[in-house]
Amino acid sequence: MTTDLLTADIGLIQRILPHRYPFLLVDKVRDIDGYQSATGIKNVTMNEPHFQGHFPGKPIMPGVTIVEAMAQTAAVMVGTALDMADQNMLVYFMAIDRCKFRRMVLPGDVLELHLTTVRGKPGGKVWKFQGMAQVEGEMACEAEFTAMMDLPAA
Prior knowledge:
The protein has one domain (6-150): Hotdog Thioesterase (Thiol Ester Dehydrase, Chain A), CATH 3.10.129.10. It is 17% helix and 40% strand. It has helices at 10-16, 63-81; strands spanning 6-8, 28-33, 37-43, 90-101, 110-119, 126-135, 138-150. The protein has a 7-stranded antiparallel beta sheet. The radius of gyration is 15 Å and the shape is globular. The termini are far apart.
């Protein structure tokens, strides 16, 4: 049996995530396989505000923003699979484990964020994910993280 994979464009991403410039860190999420796996795309550009100070003369995407981009990808994956657009879902980090940085991410890079669900189910609030960020097939970052998905009371 073949499952059609979904894609979330920037319009759908903004309907799922509350984040906006300068903290919206994912441009597209593709290959969404239910709430099991997805790939986020982040086009890294020099005009992002963190490059003004990280570091002058040698712009490097901060590691914390790479991990945040992975988390946003995971939230879009779950939000798409569970039809959470326009539901004002909030997502909170609970833990980050086994985080390793392997390569610098620079302006001009296209960051691919490969996410899989380790634990979580529809109706559950606590989810665990495994993420891997790559540039041109080369590992930039890997991490496991736990997050709480929360919907405000109506």
